[in-house]
């Protein structure tokens, strides 16, 4: 479920980075007062445990395939939401830095999808109320809900970025069922581990009281922070930025309406058509770099999109080849320089 | 999905690479973080069909690989591992987007294929930029720079502890898994009966070890925060490094260099 850098636009990733930074600051501030001292190394060890356990293969009975653990609900059950959130942030960051898993630009999104949603939504709202009486049910249900929310967030973030051409509905239909299965496996593994710990060392599960946010208003503070930041970013500051690249939803609408030749618009279709006209994305869209010598003015005048010209294509490819040639030449000369430096 | 052995080797390899002494390794961590993020944001800001205009950005990973004496193979390996997810999503672009954008005689390239290749190029740039940041800096220096940027100290301590404990735990897990596989008739995946007990035992053992380590740390004066190594100051060379890459990135974003080269070499006869 790691989002990739390549699928994100700067506006979406900056918004999610801001949310993640706010949440991390919030969780870090709450930490020193909540944690007993020995929690600090325990957090390190549990982080390393989750990091390593994500690579364990769990065979799924009757299917011949295997799944693995994500670990946020397990961490939240053992450490409480704030410490678990920080541990997940560290796991995701190490994966992004060392393994380029997800990527640095997408780190904000990944923290939101895989740390915030399980630790601050699924854990307090689903796991906590159920855990005392039905530990396994709590683990399975919270894992399923966390994964479903995470998958939904991935779809929305990707669609808003507008890099992938997959329409929103099709993407949702693809992601949610897969993550239902993954969530079930994640939940069953988490339940099995928690049941084992409750049997073998119940003290480990009982220690978390100090690490829970107090009931009432403050439990929802991180939720409020995130939605406030998201609202602020999307409403104001990033609008000018986002408008430079196509909005995913508009893009899908454009594509769908363009391909299916709908009858003259009425009702909701009329609204969509007006939206399409007002967005006017294709009308003055200077063609991408591969077709770079298209004159923007002529595109505007002809209003014909796309403006296909053979010479433009050849110029693009030739340019690419020359760039690669220059880069290779530079690399070779550097290697020669190194070899000469080593000899001397 | 990562294998335990390869993850362990990978951690080792990148920590060793970070100890090299090259002009790139000597640059301040803050400078490298700035340049990396500038590249990532810039790459993301290109329109979906951009391909050849982004190619000059490959100069960044190529120069760093060469000047920082980082081998190609680990970076390429990570790129290959990141590919399946991208291929799954990216291949929908050619299927859904048939708008012809390039024409070579009778042969047309659709917008979908162009955006697909653009996606692969973006991914290559992002993966190599992240890995090169770490391979030329190292986690302690990176944490030190992040502390100066007001990243919360508990989080940085958590990074460093997680990194150090990863070695211990990955080795422990490798031993346990090897023992399990030798006794399970060759089956690599954990059967349902040990879903809870095997990782549970590992977790309890990790907890025991953490307690012992904590006692040892207390004996050596640990007060809840790890002392971070002091780094060299930010020099004018570092500022020059940021300025040079920044200018280059802006130039690539504003001017289509491959197209300019075509005009230069072929005299705009196309």
Structure description:
Chain A is mainly α. Helix content of chain A is 71%, strand content 1%. Chain A has helices spanning 10-34, 39-53, 72-79, 81-99, 107-131, 135-161, 168-200, 202-206, 221-237, 239-242, 248-260, 267-279, 296-302, 310-343; strands at 58-59, 66-67. Chain A has a two-stranded antiparallel sheet with strand order 1-2. Chain A is globular and about 70 Å long. The termini of chain A are far apart. Chain B has helices spanning 4-17, 29-45, 59-67, 72-90, 92-96, 111-135, 139-148, 153-183, 197-219, 236-254, 257-266, and strands spanning 100-104, 107-110. In chain B, helix 1 packs across helix 8, helix 2 packs antiparallel against helix 6 and helix 2 (29-45) runs parallel beside helix 10. The radius of gyration of chain B is 24 Å and the shape is flat. The interface between A and B is large, with 114 and 126 residues.
Beta-strand percentage range of chain A: under 5%
Shape of chain A: globular
Q: Report how far the terminal alpha carbons of chain A are from each other.
A: 51 Å
Q: What structural category characterises the helix and strand content of chain A? A: mainly alpha
Largest sheet of chain B: 2 strands, antiparallel
Count of extended strands of chain B: 2
Strand order of the largest sheet of chain B: 1-2
Backbone structural class of chain B: mainly alpha
Helix percent band of chain A: over 70%
Total E-strand runs of chain A: 2
Q: What's the pLDDT, averaged over the residues of chain A?
A: 71
Summarize the structure.
Chain A has helices spanning 10-34, 39-53, 72-79, 81-99, 107-131, 135-161, 168-200, 202-206, 221-237, 239-242, 248-260, 267-279, 296-302, 310-343; strands at residues 58-59, 66-67. Chain A is mainly α and 344 residues long.
List the keywords:
heterodimer; A: 344 residues; mainly alpha; 14 helices; 2 strands; B: 270 residues; two-stranded antiparallel ribbon
Protein topology:
The complex is a heterodimer of chains A (344) and B (270).
Chain A: H1 10-34, H2 39-53, E1 58-59, E2 66-67, H3 72-79, H4 81-99, H5 107-131, H6 135-161, H7 168-200, H8 202-206, H9 221-237, H10 239-242, H11 248-260, H12 267-279, H13 296-302, H14 310-343
Antiparallel strand pairs in A: 1-2
Helix pairs in contact in A: 1-4, 1-5, 1-9, 2-4, 3-4, 3-5, 4-5, 5-6, 6-7
Chain B: H1 4-17, H2 29-45, H3 59-67, H4 72-90, H5 92-96, E1 100-104, E2 107-110, H6 111-135, H7 139-148, H8 153-183, H9 197-219, H10 236-254, H11 257-266
Antiparallel strand pairs in B: 1-2
Helix pairs in contact in B: 1-8, 2-6, 2-10, 3-6, 4-6, 7-8
